[in-house]
Specification:
237 residues; alpha/beta; Elongation Factor Tu (Ef-tu), domain 3; Rossmann fold; 2 domains; seven-stranded antiparallel β-sheet; five-stranded parallel β-sheet; 7 helices; 12 strands; globular; Cbr1-like_FAD-bd_dom
């Protein structure tokens, strides 16, 4: 629920479990449109898992949801990788944060993207999916699972997966290719027998993710989890 009457968000803030006050400790521009934000705070009771997200109230009647990319409960660190996309309210909020700013939030909640029993996982998305990918990496390596990251990124962001230390990445330019079923069908990940029964986690742009899912269902025996993060013309899915 990205938009709602003010009183609904007021009530939710009073009733939902709260995080201790978070302070912006470090800001880093990874590109003109992607920012890493590190918060400090008392995170000893933080329930952080792959897919944990925080709803930021970016206006009286608006919230925007961001996936936590990294957390260190012991040392009081929580990080986000955010896409500064256009002039949307979420982008403005994240763009305007300064070191020392304090943010009041509810406890993270978690989408169940991760299946620890899967032998192989493919994580797909765009700039809005980088935080999720970063949260996946240490868990996949720790559990010795085979994995691949596939991104469609603007040219200015094509080096970011490497900057984040992501491994086994394939980066494609964001030119609408993932809207074409015939093109997606020719991807090696679809045609290679070794990945026919992988778990696919599809996020980012709704239309790209939906096209990818159709091809996976038609051409492989893989399991699919789809969660579109944004769609042209829609404010905050």
């Amino acid at each position: 629920m990205p938009n709602a009457p003010k009183w609904i968000f007021d009530v939710a803030e009073r009733l939902l479990p709260k995080l201790p006050l978070m302070e912006v400790a470090h800001l880093e521009l990874l590109s003109p449109s992607v920012r890493k934000i590190r918060f400090s705070g008392d995170f000893r009771n933080l329930n952080y898992k792959v897919g944990s997200y925080i709803d930021f109230r970016v206006g009286e009647k608006e919230v925007r949801r961001y996936t936590a990319s990294y957390a260190d409960n012991k040392n009081g660190i929580l990080e986000l990788i955010v896409h500064l996309h256009g002039e949307g309210s979420g982008s403005k909020f994240m763009k305007n944060l300064k070191v020392g700013d304090k943010v009041d939030n509810n406890q993270p909640r978690t989408y169940r993207y991760y299946d620890e029993s899967a032998e192989k996982l493919v994580i797909f998305g765009d700039e809005t999916s980088l935080g999720l990918a970063r949260s996946f990496l240490p868990v996949l390596k720790k559990n010795n699972q085979k994995f691949k990251f596939i991104f469609e990124l603007d040219d200015e962001n094509k080096a970011i997966p490497e900057l984040l230390g992501l491994e086994n990445c394939i980066v494609f330019p964001k030119k609408g290719s993932f809207r074409k079923e015939e093109w997606v069908s020719e991807l090696p990940i679809i045609k290679t027998l070794d990945w026919q029964e992988a778990n696919f986690v599809l996020t980012g742009n709704v239309k790209s993710a939906q096209t990818f899912r159709r091809v996976i269902k038609a051409k492989t025996n893989g399991n699919v989890y789809l969660h579109g993060y944004w769609l042209e013309g829609k404010n905050g899915l």
